[in-house]
Amino acid sequence: MSAIVQHPFEEPSFLRRVLRSPSAAAGGIVVLLILAAALLAPWIAPYDPNLQETANRLMPPSAAHWFGTDGFGRDLLSRMIYGARPTLLLLLFVVLLMAPLGILVGILAGYFGGITERILMRITDVVMSFPRLLLAFAFVAIMGPGLVNGALALSLTSWPAYARQARVETAALRRSDYLAAAEMVGIKGIRLLYGHVLPLVLPSAIIRLALDLSGIILAAAGLGFLGLGVRPPTAEWGAMVSEGTQVIFDQWWVAAVPGFAILITSLAFNLLADGLRDILDPRHG
C-alpha cells in the first residue's frame, strides 16, 4: 500500500488555524472590533468626546446617553470609543520599541558571547531587578506625562525578558550544525544574524509579546489613572477611571464604563495570545 503524501498547499493556512482555535478566534474578533471602533471613532461616536454640558453632568445611562455622562457632562460612550485610540497607540509604540530592543540585545549576547555577553546581560539584570511599573512611573515623572513618554517608559522597563529569552535560544543555535553550514558557504556577520538566527528566535518572542499585551494595557491604564498618561481633556481609559473614583458610590457608571473597556480589551488580548501560543509553539500543538 503506497503512503499518502499530503501536498504542501493542502496544509491548513495560518488564518485557518487561528479560526479553528476558539480562544484565538474570539480574542481576534474582539480586538478587530476595538481597532475598528478606534479608527472609525469620528463617525460612530454619537457626541464630541470633549463637549462639556454642565446641565447634563453625572446623568445615568439613558436613551440619549447610553452609558451616562461624567462630571463635566461629557458623553461616556463617546469618550470610551475615543479612549481606545491613545491606549492602542501606546500599545503599538511599546511593541515597536520593546520587542526589537530585547531581541537585538539577546541575539548579540548569545551569538558573540564572552565580554559582550557579560556586559549586555549584566545591564539586563540591573533593569530586571527594579519593579517594572514603579520604574516606568519614575521615568514618566522625570520626562513628563504624555503618550510618547509613557511608551518610552514602558518599553525601557519591559525589554529584558525578551533579551534573556533570545540570548538562551541564540546561544543554543550558535553551536548548531545549521549555523555552521551557513558559515561554511560564506554567510557571516549581520547577514547571518538577520537571515538565519532572527527567524528562529522570532516565534517564541511573538508568543511572549502576545502574552504581555494585556499587561501593557493595564500598565498604560495605570499611568493614566495616576495622571501620567495623555494630557486632559483627551479621553483615556485610565484617566476616566480615576475621575470616576471620586463619585463611585453614587454615580458608579462613570468609573465602571472605562473599567469595563479595560477588562474586555485585556481579556481579548489574553484569549488571542493563548490561541497564538497553541498555534506557534509546537509543544502546545
From TrEMBL:
A Pfam short name: BPD_transp_1
One GO term describing the cellular component: plasma membrane
Primary location recorded for the protein, binned into one broad class: membrane
InterPro entries given in the database record: BP-dependent_transpt_permease, MetI-like, MetI-like_sf, OppC_N
PROSITE patterns listed in its UniProt record: ABC_TM1
Any Gene Ontology biological process: protein transport
Membrane topology: Multi-pass membrane protein
Bilayer-crossing regions: 24-45, 88-112, 133-158, 178-202, 209-231, 251-273
Keywords from the named record: Cell membrane, Membrane, Peptide transport, Protein transport, Transmembrane, Transmembrane helix, Transport
Similarity comment: family membership: Belongs to the binding-protein-dependent transport system permease family.
Protein name per its UniProtKB record: Peptide/nickel transport system permease protein
